């Protein structure tokens, strides 16, 4: 009986801990939308969430860590949203189209918030920058989705280019995200249109990469990527 009781406590505490953590994140996102990122403090977040300041800092050492938690949550939502299309489609273009649309679908509820903190995320030395070390786990998770787009498709391309393509697709998606941040059309209609019109172009360029006249260009592109990364 004691063992069963202990097991119950062990299962309950992590669940409550995750609930508290999620509450702090959601409260922070709401305050960022309402007050702006700069004006929101950890003390204010704790007060609105109904937890002590010490408890808030126990889960998150700073506002930046809260945004990283938001990035992680967004990646989980994105993966879940595009799972159906990745399981259903085998051609490269429909897989990429579905994943990019799912990306926007999961971001739409945060559209107003995204515009308010973008100026902080765009600073080169900001931990919120998508290229920062702090954003590394979320960036790796995002690139992994595009690797699944490529590896699960019937696409036939040079192996070196195949290895680098997921990161190129992630960079392409970041350009779309930047456009989405500034998209004021109803329901972000223009962002969806941009995706629908550019995916066929990307598909053509990727497919053409294995043609004799384009192989040297593709190899040079791969070399540039690897030299910059080194």
UniProtKB/TrEMBL annotation:
Alphabetized InterPro entries for the sequence: DNA-bd_HTH_TetR-type_CS, Homeodomain-like_sf, HTH-type_TetR-like_transc_reg, HTH_TetR, Tet_transcr_reg_TetR-rel_C_sf, TetR_C_23
Regions recorded as binding DNA: 41-60
SUPFAM superfamilies, A to Z: Homeodomain-like, Tetracyclin repressor-like, C-terminal domain
Keyword Zinc-finger listed: no
Keywords noted in UniProt: DNA-binding
Superkingdom to which the source organism belongs: Bacteria
Sequence ranges assigned to domain HTH tetR-type in this UniProt record: 18-78
Molecular functions per Gene Ontology: DNA-binding transcription factor activity; transcription cis-regulatory region binding
Entry-linked Pfam families: TetR_C_23 (PF17931), TetR_N (PF00440)
Protein name from the UniProt record: TetR family transcriptional regulator
């Amino acid at each position: 009986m004691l063992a069963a009781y202990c097991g119950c406590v062990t299962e309950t505490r992590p669940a409550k801990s995750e609930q508290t953590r999620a509450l702090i994140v959601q409260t922070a996102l709401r305050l960022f939308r309402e007050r702006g990122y700069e004006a929101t403090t950890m003390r204010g977040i704790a007060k609105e969430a109904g937890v002590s300041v010490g408890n808030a800092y126990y889960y998150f050492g700073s506002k930046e860590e809260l945004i990283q938690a938001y990035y992680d949550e967004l990646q989980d939502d994105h993966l879940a949203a595009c799972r159906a299309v990745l399981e259903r489609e085998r051609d490269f273009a429909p897989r990429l189209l579905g994943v990019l649309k799912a990306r926007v679908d999961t971001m739409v509820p945060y559209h107003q918030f995204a515009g308010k903190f973008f100026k902080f995320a765009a600073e080169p030395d900001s931990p919120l920058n998508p290229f920062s070390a702090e954003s590394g786990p979320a960036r790796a998770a995002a690139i992994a989705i595009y690797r699944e787009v490529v590896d699960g498709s019937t696409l036939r391309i040079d192996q070196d280019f195949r290895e680098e393509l997921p990161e190129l697709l992630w960079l392409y998606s970041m350009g779309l995200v930047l456009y989405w941040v500034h998209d004021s059309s109803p329901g972000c209609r223009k962002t969806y249109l941009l995706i629908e019109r550019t995916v066929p172009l990307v598909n053509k360029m990727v497919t053409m990469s294995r043609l004799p006249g384009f192989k040297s260009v593709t190899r040079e592109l791969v070399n540039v990527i690897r030299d910059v990364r080194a």
